[in-house]
Every structure is written in structure tokens, then in C-alpha cells.
Specification:
Layout lengths: L1 H5 L10 H10 L10 H11 L3 E10 L2 E10 L4 E10 L3 H14 L5 H9 L9 H15 L3 H14 L4 H7 L2
Antiparallel strand pairs: 1-2, 2-3
Helix pairs in contact: 6-7, 7-8
């Protein structure tokens, strides 16, 4: 969700979720693995990345607490960004985090405008629908269209007003 909200350009190319799963597999990392600085640098090396963005979220009741780390490996600088939101206001929180991430990237103002213009803002307030949509996007990019269809169906089941999911489902 965050990567599509941040955007991309010739100067900013997000690493696909499939590639990240492959890198984690190559490094024998699991979702429970602790990522220290040396491991983060290895991940960045495998991904050919100068900057890494990682994060986590916690749900307590109806509140989501999101923490994102922007690691500029070239300059040795890390910025921690935090957001708190109800599920209903999640798109606004994601947009705010994406804006903060863009401001912490080593890009010119012209490149930042290009990146922002290429961003896709979430159009659902359902966390489950957004998660399913994000997974479907990754599957579509990997050519796994049948698998993507089932995720998109789950997304529209979670949010019957999720226009982007319906649009992708129609392809």
C-alpha cells in the first residue's frame, strides 16, 4: 500500500514484493527474523537499493499504529515515521506517510513532483480490501492473473465500493 502511494519514476524504482520474497528466501529470512544493520545492508545489496523503506503496523481495537523506517544507506541516515489511524481513515494516514517518505528521499524537487504524480492513492477504507488489492497487484505483475482474480474478488467482497479493485478485476 505504501509503495504505490509513494509513487515511482526513473530515479525511484520500488522493489517488487515478489523480488523481496525471493531475497528473503535467498538470505533464509522469515517474517519473524530480526533485521539488524548488517542484514539490512545485505537485503539492499541484493535489491540494488541505496535506500530501504521498511515498517510494521499494529492493530489495537479499531486503531492502527504504523511505523516506517526510511534508511538512506549511502549517507547512513535513518528516519522513523509514525502514524495512527482508525481503519476508516487509513487512506489519509497512508497518504500522509507517503508524503513524509517522499520528503525524506534524496531526490530533486522535479523528481519528487514526478514521483508524486505517479503515486496511486488508496480508494478504500477497508484494510482487508487494501491488503487483498495490493496482493492482487503483485500477482498481476508476476503474470499470475487467475490468482489475482481471487484476491480482487476478496477485495470487492470486503469493500463493495472499491473502484480500483473492480477496474483491475475487469481486465
Amino acid at each position: 500500500m505504501i509503495s504505490t502511494a509513494v509513487g515511482q519514476s526513473a530515479q525511484l524504482k520500488p522493489v517488487s514484493p515478489e523480488r523481496m520474497r525471493q531475497i528473503f528466501g535467498d538470505l533464509r529470512l522469515t517474517p519473524e527474523s530480526s533485521i539488524d544493520d548488517a542484514t539490512l545492508r545485505r537485503i539492499a545489496e541484493f535489491a540494488s537499493a541505496d535506500t530501504t523503506i521498511s515498517g510494521q503496523y499494529t492493530r489495537i481495537g479499531d486503531q492502527l499504529y504504523i511505523e516506517v523506517a526510511v534508511n538512506d544507506l549511502k549517507n547512513g541516515h535513518t528516519t522513523i515515521l509514525k502514524a495512527q489511524s482508525s481503519e476508516k481513515n487509513l487512506p489519509t494516514a497512508i497518504n500522509g506517510l507517503a508524503d513524509s517518505i517522499r520528503k525524506n528521499l534524496a531526490l530533486s524537487s522535479a523528481d519528487l513532483k514526478t514521483v508524486q504524480a505517479q503515486s496511486i492513492l488508496p480508494t478504500s477504507s477497508s484494510v482487508d480490501a487494501l491488503r487483498e488489492y495490493n496482493d492482487a497487484l503483485a500477482m498481476t505483475r508476476a503474470g499470475r492473473n487467475i490468482d489475482a482474480q481471487s484476491r480482487l474478488s476478496a477485495a470487492v467482497d470486503s469493500d463493495s465500493r472499491f473502484a480500483l479493485a473492480y477496474a483491475l478485476l475487469s481486465h
